[in-house]
Amino acid sequence: xxxxxxxxxxxxxxxxxxxxxxxxxxxxxxxxxxxxxxxxxxxxxxxxxxxxxxxxxxxxxxxxxxxxxxxxxxxxxxxxxxxxxxxxxxxxxxxxxxxxxxxxxxxxxxxxxxxxxxxxxxxxxxxxxxxxxxxxxxxxxxxxxxxxxxxxxxxxxxxxxxxxxxxxxxxxxxxx
Length: 176
Fold this sequence. Notes:
Shape: globular
Distance between the termini: 86 Å
Largest sheet: 9 strands, antiparallel
Structural class: alpha+beta
CATH class: Mainly Beta
Order of helices and strands: HEEEEHEEEEHE
Number of domains: 1
């Protein structure tokens, strides 16, 4: 009777593995890190006013160098003035290092061009939400949660096509 119970349990476990795959029972491998290179990646936030420009189709350009990931996100306007990796409270502390915008030029399908801000955001991990605070033209800090996922390698041809839609500029210079 005892052997029969063990046999039934083993059969159930094996059936579950066959149905759901062994990934259910095995933790993710460490080799899921991206190789150095350039990718596009999905940029998702918890805010309707904080998102990638429509030309970018909710994606940014993810650069991986020496295992460090940075996502360049082209915004919809110049109304987000700075970003901070962390909370709004931390962003206001003395010595906080704010992310400065670049001036990106986007070209819409109708041929219209516009200068908008872009930001290079350090990405601590893929598929895991992290805190990003922003300050806009109204000079008020807001807390947001960001997730970067679905990295797709960019070929030279795809990079050229994307560059025709979005020209990533240099850092915004402070007005004197």
